[in-house]
Amino acid sequence: MPSRKIFVDACLGKETPYTPVWMMRQAGRYLPEYMAIRAEAGDFLNLCHNPKKACEVTLQPIDIVGVDAAILFSDILVVPDEMGMDLSFVKGEGPKFSDPIKTEADLDRLIGGDEAASKLSYVFETIKLIKKELSEDIALIGFTGSPWTLATYMIEGEGTKTYNICKKMIYTNPTLLHNILAKVTEVVKLYMEKQIQSGIDVVQIFDSWAAAIEPSMYDEFSWKYMLEIAEYLKEKYPHIPIIIFPKGIPSFLDKVYGNFDVFGVDWSTPMELAKEKLGDKYVLQGNMEPCRLYSKEMTTKSVQDIQEIMGTSRHIFNLGHGILPDVPVENAIHFVKECQRVSKK
Hints:
Layout: H1 4-11, H2 32-41, H3 44-49, H4 51-64, E1 69-71, H5 78-83, E2 87-90, E3 94-97, H6 104-108, H7 113-118, H8 121-133, E4 139-145, H9 147-156, H10 164-172, H11 174-198, E5 202-207, H12 215-236, E6 242-246, E7 262-265, H13 271-278, E8 283-286, H14 296-310, E9 315-316, H15 329-342
Parallel strand pairs: 1-4, 4-5, 5-6, 6-7, 7-8, 8-9
Antiparallel strand pairs: 2-3
């Protein structure tokens, strides 16, 4: 098990004796222990709002799966929820906002800045509890959704496959969309700063719906807002590594720039391409296809292939997106052990 310093150093691009491994969505429905605590909580949001239980599920993958870092258990949508939107999680359907943003008046009714960020106190309490329970040798990763990804839910009112409402706004009312993104960005900057002040060691920004934007519009409506968050945090906390994970943008790699440390490579982006385009600028993280976890043999092959591509280049093992709920726990453990086995010495 690597030390907290080794994990943080690896994220900062410093030479380390081996490559650490963690998994997106580490605490999730694939773990029976997680499902038991979720059942006790009675509701997903209740679990996010309960620091004791959120701490418990954050620590589970460390003990059960053997990953090299813990990732805070929470949800990206607690941000718009505490800005004043009406969030619920509907069984079988996912998150829903009953009051999506359609006009400037809708946006104006939402609170912003420090007032909204401070309402996320249960997240900061969770971090402090985790730090008390977590071995000092283990790094803790905090996270947020990107402003664009958060805005898609806030505008559409739920998850979507077409993004037609928020994309319509790009082309017909970009001023409103920029105002939404700017307001969310201000809250997220302060939210992540408070996570750092509470004890997290690494920040990750998820742009889960990056691929919904055409390449020529991506910088304007997503990337620049993530960089604004990264720049704000780096200026104040240069020792805290920042991971940016935009999903599904292999065609955008030439446009990647900015002051952050780790670029998360999703499973649809060839690792060779990411290394060619970005390996000299950033530490790369990823990028095994999560469905390979259904087969131990295919998991081993992928881990070996990734290691052969990366060689001695700066890298952190991870999945190329979140672990799926029906993956056998023993297969997740196998992935971690294989990463540790081939990890460069």
